[in-house]
């Protein structure tokens, strides 16, 4: 596959969509990014990375971090099963920051890729490692090969200032006994994880273990093959919030989006992609990013379907 040529063609198709949609404005620190930025990168399973456009520009990973916290919990707990008694594996059909479902399902979030689910996973990672957000930052530095990756203090601070909704989710789940650590510390680590700044290049490389059936960049094993398969499955069914059905229909790849405008997508056994464009649709997914991934699977025939 001539990745560079494919990416050029994908970018030409998707660029007109850049600027469409709305840049996330729930915190001032994200609102300042120009909506029409566009970048895309692909990392093959040998770690070779190709890119086009703004593929080396760092942006806020936001909910893409939810993929890595789940992977790290699985890696540190040594079993895939314990986290699943505390968080489900079904699409939520509600917005990513919704509270409603928690009440009738006893504080058990529908899946790990909505905010409530990610708080439970972060809580578990905190218990397993003693420092959830630093564990993730170190992991991402190693997998991306970029030692300069860092938290964005302004974004994390802004999240905390406007964090009533996530804090409410935390206390509500805690009332059902579904958090092990104090709510403020879980929320803080969750915000730090969301605030990490990475480029498409960094994220495509860091997500490589999902295409390599659980093998890390250095060839060592992070996850069993069946665990990587399970993360990919949950990405496909839940990774793009209440648009996961539409995403499977259009793109047909495991994917995880974030309100910073990034989306990672996995072609198991072949490559990991990351696309970035900050204009979001009503569900919080990048408009140009979805268009790019749609065109990528059309051109390559590499949808999992
Ligand atoms: N930091 C954001 C929040 O907690 C992440 C949400 C997202 O990217 N969908 O609301």
TrEMBL record:
Gene responsible for this protein: glsA
EC number assigned by the record: 3.5.1.2
Molecular function via GO: glutaminase activity
Taxonomic superkingdom: Bacteria
SUPFAM superfamilies: beta-lactamase/transpeptidase-like (SSF56601)
Entry's Gene Ontology BP terms: glutamate biosynthetic process; L-glutamine catabolic process
The protein's name in its UniProt record: Glutaminase
Taxonomic lineage: Bacteria, Bacillati, Actinomycetota, Actinomycetes, Kitasatosporales
Keyword entries, A-Z: Acetylation, Hydrolase
Species whose genome carries this gene: Streptomyces kasugaensis
